[in-house]
From TrEMBL:
PANTHER family tied to this protein: STAGE V SPORULATION PROTEIN AC-RELATED, STAGE V SPORULATION PROTEIN AEB
Native source organism of the sequence: Caloramator australicus RC3
Record protein name field: Stage V sporulation protein AE (SpoVAE)
Alphabetic keyword roster: Membrane, Transmembrane, Transmembrane helix
Transmembrane segments: 6-23, 32-49, 94-113
Recorded superkingdom: Bacteria
Keyword Transmembrane helix: yes
Signal peptide positions on this chain: none
A family per Pfam: SpoVAC_SpoVAEB
InterPro entries in UniProt: Spore_V_AE, SpoVA
Length: 119
C-alpha cells in the first residue's frame, strides 16, 4: 500500500510543479515539457533522480522527468559499454519501447476518434 502512496505523492508533486509553472509564469506547456525532460536528464546523469525513482517508482518514472532520466540512464550504460558512440545510441535504446507505444496508441486513438485542432 505504501508503494501506491509514494507513487501518488512523487508523481503528484511533479505534476503540481508543472501546474504552478503554467499558472504563475508565462511559460508555454511545450517549454515546460522541454524543461522537465532536460531536468530529468541532468538529475539522472548526476545521480539525484535515482533515489526518487526508488522511492516513488512509477510516480517518478512515468512523468516527463522520468523520460529524461531513462534517456540519461540508457546513455550512461551504453557509454560504459561501447564508448562515445553509446552516448548517441543509449538513450534511443532505453526509451524506444515507450516512444513506439506512444506513436502506436496515438495513431489508434486518431483512427477511433475525430481529432480536431484547437481554435
Amino acid at each position: 500500500m505504501m508503494d501506491y502512496i509514494w507513487a501518488f505523492l512523487v508523481g503528484g508533486s511533479i505534476c503540481l510543479i508543472a501546474q504552478i509553472l503554467m499558472d504563475k509564469t508565462n511559460l508555454t506547456p511545450a517549454r515546460i515539457l522541454v524543461y522537465f525532460v532536460t531536468a530529468g536528464v541532468i538529475l539522472g546523469a548526476i545521480g539525484v533522480y535515482e533515489p526518487l525513482v526508488k522511492l516513488g517508482k512509477a510516480g517518478a518514472t512515468v512523468p516527463l522527468p522520468g523520460f529524461g532520466y531513462s534517456l540519461a540512464k540508457g546513455a550512461i550504460r551504453e557509454v560504459e559499454k561501447y564508448g562515445l558512440i553509446g552516448a548517441f545510441t543509449g538513450g534511443v535504446k532505453a526509451t524506444s519501447a515507450g516512444i513506439a507505444a506512444a506513436i502506436f496508441f496515438g495513431y489508434i486513438m486518431a483512427l477511433l476518434f475525430n481529432p480536431k485542432t484547437k481554435n
